Amino acid sequence: MRLAREFPIEIVSVDSAQVYRGLDIGSAKPDASERAAVPHHLIDLVEPNASYSAGQFVRDAAQAIDDIEARGRVPLLVGGTMLYLRALMGGIATLPRASDSIRAAIDVDAQRLGWPAMHERLGEVDAAAAARIHPNDAQRIQRALEVYTASGRPISELQTASTRPIDREFICAALVPHDRARLHIALSQRFEAMMSSGLLDEVRRLFARGDLTDGHPAIRAVGYRQLWAHIAGAYPLEMAVARAIAATRQLAKRQMTWLRSMPNIRAFDPYETQSFVGLRQSLIASFERA
Questions:
Q1: Given CA atoms 109, 236, 248, 192 in this order, what sign does their dihedral have?
Q2: Dihedral of CA 84/88/92/95: which sign?
Q3: What is the crossing angle of helices 237-261 and 82-90, to 10°?
Q4: pLDDT at 166
Q5: Average pLDDT value for residue range 179-184
Q6: 229-274 pLDDT, tens per residue?
Q7: CA-to-CA distance for 242 and 77, rounded, in angstroms?
Q8: Residue 251 contacts by C-beta under 8 Å, 6 or more apart in sequence?
Q9: Tell me, what's the pLDDT at 244?
Q10: Could you tell me the domains of the chain?
């Protein structure tokens, strides 16, 4: 937002939770005043009972980037869904479309056997995918098994035949805190602030709709998943909050691992006063090259 006061920027959200309507507090969506001050894209695209894939993101992001540039402005992609960013920058494979019937069958087996057992099943048909997917990552296990069931080919094999969706030079800047203890405190305070802002009531409203389950990707988002389980009677609120904070820390750790693996990325510590100066200089350099 500070950069947008100086430069002709429009923000493109790279966030797999902010695409869902009704997931506002827990996804840290920009509020109405922020969205009025600076145009934001790829927010509130679909209902929470829908699925939204990396492939859809690539198509929507490419269109948003074209539109922003046509107005003579600069797209600034911001968010923490590394899979989406990698797909946009490096390309995405052509995979079978989502199948409700196949997913339902996988979910039935998962409820009976558990996701670690489904991970073992994945390892039998796609060892490469199983090696990079955590045994408790239900969403990615389900998708990998769905792709194999629908196509008869491992998702890891199909993903090697990706094509780059847009021809752009990306200038990548990452906010990577060096002080992990301080980061963990900040993550806890952030989630507590979300709770104070009404996150539990937000999840209650989603629960009361009646058309959502904990199998929907929207409800699997960090924070929503744990509070949903509390509302369903799985464990007390105090435990749900503790689990949500722990899951947030794990997500941050995975995000930083992704960022470290990206080539030509500039990292800034958000707790250092000079970081904004460095980010600003990176943007100025990009304008000069353009």
A1: positive
A2: positive
A3: 20
A4: 80
A5: 95
A6: 999 999 999 999 999 999 999 999 999 988 888 888 888 998 888 8
A7: 31
A8: 80, 222
A9: 98
A10: 2-92+163-289 (3.40.50.300), 100-161 (1.10.20.140)
